[in-house]
Design brief:
By secondary structure, this protein is α+β, with helices and mostly antiparallel strands. The protein folds into four domains: 177 residues, no CATH class; 112 residues, Rossmann fold (3-Layer(aba) Sandwich), CATH 3.40.50; 217 residues, Distorted Sandwich (Hnrnp arginine n-methyltransferase1); 127 residues, no CATH class. The strands form four sheets. Strands 8, 9, 10, 12, 13 and 14 form a six-stranded antiparallel sheet that branches. A five-stranded parallel sheet has the order 5-4-3-6-7, with helices on both faces. Strand 15 and strand 16 form a beta hairpin. Helix 20 packs parallel to helix 22. The two termini are 71 Å apart.
C-alpha cells in the first residue's frame, strides 16, 4: 500500500500549492496550526506568507481545494451527486464513524472509483479506516464544523419545552464531539511528531562523522510483553489479580467519576476494573504490541467511550489530560524491583497525579529470611558431582552467581523473617530504589548449614494517600486483623504467586561460611540493591553477614537478569523444544506449573534413549522435591483414622443387616449407608483442632469400605436372613435377633474387615 505522502500527492495539490495542508517541516507557512507543534521546533521555519493561512480542505472526489467544509460538501453534492451529510445521518454516525467514512471515500477514489452511488455501513466499519489517507487531512481537523447529525425519524419540535430539550441534547452531542476530536487530534499529533522525529534521526545518522551507539535496554523488555503467554500467567495468578479487583470493587466510591491512569496496562484488565467501578475516564498506556489487543478487549466489553489506549512509554506519550486522580499499575518484578518499571510509575506520579491523588497499590514491605534446604542443594547443585557416574563439577562454575526464582516451602525457612525496607508509593523517589539496608535474624531451629537467603515482598492497597502501614505488617495477617484496605504476600507462608521469591544460594565452595547453627543463634548483616552498568533493567543483590564469636564477615553478590531459570541444572542438561517453550517476560520466569519436552531426534535413537532416561530422572527429581516439601505433614496411620473408619463401616454393616432381616435379600445399601456415615463424619470433623490429612482420609475410606463391602462379598450379611427364613421350628427356627445381638454381629463383621483392611492399606502405601 502506498504511504500517506504518496496518496496525498496523487489525490491532492502539491506542497507548493498547499503548504498549510501538508504541514511538512520544510513547507510550513503557519505560526499556529491545528496540531500544536512545539514552539522550539517551529523556530527557524520560513513563512511562505506573512499573514495567517486558512485551512485548505481537499475535495472528496477531485483535487479542488476549499477554505471550509460546507463549501466542499456542496461541491461534491452538486458535481458528483454525493450527499455526505445524508449518508452520515442515514447511518447515525458518531465522530469516529464520520472519520471512517471520510477515509473510506478517499481510499475508494484513489482506487479509481469516481462515484459512490451505494454506500453500506459495513463498507467502512473496519478500524483500518481510522488511519488518515491524506497526510494532515484538513477535513478531519474540521469535522466539528459540520452540523449535528440528525436521527432518522426525528419529529419536528412542537413547542418551547421540546425546543429546550433538543437544545440540551445538541449541546451534549457537541461536547462529546469536541471531546472525541481532542483525543483524535492528540493521536494524530503524536503520530506525525514521531514520523518527523524518525526522519530527523535517519538524516542525522546518515551524516558523516563518528556517532555514539546508544545501548538499548528496552526493546527486548517491551517485546517480551507482546505475547499471550505472560499475560495468561499473570491473569491466572489469582492472588495478584483478585487483590486488584477486590480493592477497586470494594472502593467504588473512590473511583466513581474519577480520571485514572493505568501505567503498563497489558491486556487492559485493570483499566476494565476501574471503568466498571465507575471511573469517568481511564487512560491505558503500554509500549508493547499488546496494546492493540487491549484496545480490542476494551471495545468488545463496551468501554471504548471510557478507556483511551495510548501506545508508548509513559514518559513519552502525550496524555489528553493535565492531571489524573488515580494511578493504578502492576509494576512489581522479581524481588520487587527487577525490571525497573517503578521508575516509570514514579515519573508518572510526579507529572500527572493530583496532590490529593491515590496510588494503587500504595505500600510495599520487603522481607528477608535465612534458608536451609539440603534436598534442593543436592538435587540442583551437588547433582553435578556424579552424573551417570561421571564427574561434571566443571558445570558448577558460577552456578550460584544467579538469583533463583522459586517458591520455597515454609519448612525451609530456618529463622525469623526481617522487614528490611518499606516503599510508600506516594512519597518514594528514584533514589530510594538503590540502597543498602541492615538486617538480622534469629534461627528458629537447628540446621547443619545455612544454604541461602529468601527475599519476598508484601503489597498493600490503602484507600487514602495518608494511610500508614507498619514496617513489620504482614500481608497474610492483614485481612485476618480486619485492617482497612487489601493486601497480599508473595512469601513462603502464603499461596504461591507468579513472582514466587528471589532465592540467593550461598557459594560454600572453598569458604569457611559453611557452618551449623543452633536454635536461638543470631545472624546479622547488610543487604544492598544496585543496578548493573550493563543493563538498567537488571538487578544486583549483595548480602554481607557475620556470625560466631569472631564475627567474621562473609559477602556475596547475586545477579538477577533476563533469562532467569528456576533450576539451572535442569536448563543446562535437558534441551527444550523451542516450539513448546513459553515466551516469557524477563521478570516472570516460567509458569507456575512448568512442563518439559525433550527434543526428538529420530535419526539418532541412541540420543533419544539417553534423553528419555534423563527425562525420567528429571521427573523423579521433581517427585522427590514434592515429597520433600510435604514430608513434614503428618501422614502415619492414626488411631483416630481407624476409629472413624470403624464407625462408618458400622453404619454400613448395620443398615445392610437390618435390610437383610426385613427382606431376606442380600443388601444393596452399601452406597447410601456410606454416604450417611461420611456425612456424620464430615459434620463432626469441623470441630477438630487438627484437620484430617489426605492420608488419614484415605485410611478412613479404606477401613470403612473394607468393613462394609468385604463381609457382603463373602456372604456373611445373608447368613442371618437365610437362617431366619430356612430354619424349621424343630430346628430352632424361626430365628429372632434382638437389637443388641444385631449390633454385636455388625461389630464382629467390622473387625473382620479391619483384619484385611489395615495390612492391605500399609502394603499399598509402601
Amino acid at each position: 500500500m502506498e504511504n500517506a505522502t504518496d496518496l496525498a500527492a496523487s489525490q491532492g495539490p502539491k506542497p507548493a500549492d498547499m503548504s498549510a495542508a501538508t504541514r511538512s517541516p520544510s513547507h510550513s507557512g503557519s505560526d499556529t496550526s491545528d496540531i500544536d507543534l512545539n514552539e522550539e521546533e517551529e523556530e527557524g521555519w520560513e513563512d511562505a506568507e506573512p499573514q495567517e493561512e486558512q485551512d485548505q480542505i481537499v475535495s472528496l472526489f477531485d483535487d479542488k481545494v476549499f477554505t471550509d467544509v460546507p463549501s466542499m460538501l456542496a461541491h461534491c453534492k452538486e458535481k458528483y451527486g454525493f450527499d455526505f451529510l445524508e449518508i452520515r445521518n442515514k447511518f447515525s454516525l458518531d465522530f469516529y464513524g464520520t472519520i471512517k467514512l471520510v477515509n473510506y471515500i478517499r481510499t475508494a477514489v484513489q482506487n479509481g472509483q469516481t462515484t459512490l452511488p451505494d454506500v453500506a455501513k459495513a463498507d467502512f466499519e473496519d478500524d483500518k479506516f481510522m488511519m488518515p489517507v491524506l497526510q494532515d487531512d484538513a477535513l478531519l481537523f474540521n469535522l466539528d464544523d459540520l452540523p449535528p447529525a440528525s436521527k432518522q425519524g426525528d419529529e419536528p419540535i412542537a413547542d418551547e419545552r421540546n425546543l429546550l430539550v433538543r437544545v440540551a441534547e445538541l449541546e451534549e452531542e457537541l461536547r462529546k464531539t469536541q471531546f472525541q476530536f481532542e483525543d483524535y487530534r492528540s493521536v494524530v499529533k503524536k503520530t506525525l511528531t514521531d514520523r518527523w522525529n524518525d526522519n530527523s534521526t535517519d538524516q542525522s545518522t546518515a551524516a558523516p562523522g563518528p556517532s555514539a551507539e546508544k545501548r538499548d535496554d528496552d526493546s527486548h523488555y517491551f517485546t517480551s510483553y507482546s505475547y499471550n503467554d505472560i499475560h495468561e500467567t499473570m491473569l491466572k495468578d489469582t492472588v495478584r489479580t483478585d487483590a486488584y479487583r477486590d480493592f477497586i470493587y470494594q472502593h467504588k466510591h473512590l473511583f466513581k467519576g474519577k480520571v485514572v491512569l493505568d501505567v503498563g496496562c497489558g491486556t487492559g484488565i485493570l483499566s476494565l476494573f476501574c471503568a466498571k467501578a465507575g471511573a469517568s475516564r481511564v487512560i491505558a498506556v503500554d509500549n508493547s504490541d499488546i496494546i492493540d489487543k487491549a484496545r480490542e478487549n476494551i471495545f468488545n466489553n463496551g468501554f471504548a467511550d471510557t478507556i483511551t489506549c495510548l501506545r508508548g512509554k509513559v514518559e513519552e506519550v502525550t496524555l489528553p489530560v493535565d492531571k489524573v486522580d488515580i494511578i493504578v499499575s502492576e509494576w512489581m518484578g522479581y524481588c520487587l524491583l527487577y525490571e525497573a518499571m517503578l521508575d516509570s510509575v514514579i515519573w508518572a506520579r510526579d507529572k500527572y497525579l493530583k496532590p490529593d491523588g491515590l496510588m494503587v497499590p500504595s505500600h510495599m514491605n520487603m522481607w528477608v529470611a535465612p534458608v536451609s534446604d539440603a534436598e534442593y542443594v543436592a538435587d540442583h547443585f551437588s547433582f553435578w558431582r556424579d552424573v551417570y557416574g561421571f564427574d561434571m563439577k566443571a558445570m558448577m562454575a558460577g552456578i550460584r552467581e544467579d538469583a533463583q526464582v522459586l517458591h520455597m516451602p515454609g519448612s525451609t525457612i530456618c529463622g525469623d523473617a526481617y522487614p528490611f525496607l518499606q516503599l510508600s508509593l506516594h512519597t518514594t523517589t528514584g533514589k530510594d530504589l538503590v540502597f543498602t539496608r541492615p538486617w538480622k535474624t534469629t534461627f528458629t531451629n537447628d540446621i547443619d548449614r545455612l544454604d541461602g537467603f529468601d527475599i519476598w515482598f508484601d503489597t498493600f492497597f490503602m484507600p487514602t494517600g495518608g494511610d500508614a502501614v507498619p514496617l513489620d505488617a504482614r500481608a497474610e495477617d492483614w485481612t485476618k486483623q480486619e485492617q482497612k484496605g487489601i493486601a497480599f504476600t508473595t512469601g513462603p507462608f502464603g499461596k504461591e504467586t507468579h513472582w514466587r521469591q528471589g532465592v540467593m544460594f550461598i557459594d560454600h565452595e572453598g569458604e569457611k561460611s559453611s557452618r551449623s547453627f543452633a536454635k536461638g543463634d543470631t545472624l546479622e548483616g547488610s543487604l544492598e540493591y544496585a543496578v548493573p552498568d550493563d543493563n538498567s533493567r537488571a538487578l544486583d543483590v549483595k548480602f554481607s553477614w557475620a556470625s560466631g564469636p569472631d564475627k567474621e564477615t562473609t559477602a556475596q553478590t547475586w545477579k538477577m537478569r533476563a533469562g532467569l531459570s528456576n533450576a539451572i541444572a535442569e536448563k543446562l542438561l535437558f534441551p527444550l523444544n523451542p516450539q513448546n517453550t513459553t515466551k516469557m517476560a524477563p521478570d516472570r520466569g516460567r509458569t507456575i506449573e512448568p512442563a518439559y519436552q525433550t527434543i526428538s531426534t529420530s535419526d539418532n535413537p541412541v540420543i533419544d534413549d539417553e534423553l528419555d532416561d534423563r527425562g525420567m530422572q528429571n521427573r523423579r527429581s521433581e517427585e522427590l522435591d514434592f515429597l520433600a516439601q510435604h514430608g513434614h505433614e503428618p501422614q502415619n496411620f492414626t488411631l483416630r483414622g481407624i476409629l472413624v473408619g470403624l464407625g462408618v463401616g458400622l453404619v454400613i454393616c448395620f443398615s445392610n443387616m437390618y435390610f437383610g432381616l426385613q427382606t431376606g435379600w442380600i443388601s444393596s445399601m452399601s452406597m447410601p449407608s456410606s454416604l450417611i456415615g461420611f456425612a456424620f463424619f464430615k459434620t463432626l470433623s469441623k470441630h477438630l483442632d487438627i484437620p484430617f490429612t489426605p492420608v488419614e482420609n484415605v485410611l478412613v475410606q479404606t477401613v470403612a469400605g473394607s468393613m462394609g463391602t468385604m463381609p457382603l462379598g463373602c456372604g456373611f450379611v445373608g447368613v442371618m436372613p437365610a437362617l431366619n427364613y430356612l430354619l424349621k421350628p424343630e430346628e430352632g427356627g424361626p430365628l429372632f435377633l434382638s437389637l443388641w445381638k444385631l449390633i454385636l454381629w455388625s461389630l464382629g463383621l467390622c473387625f473382620f474387615g479391619v483384619v484385611f483392611a489395615v495390612p492391605l492399606r500399609r502394603q499399598v502405601n509402601h
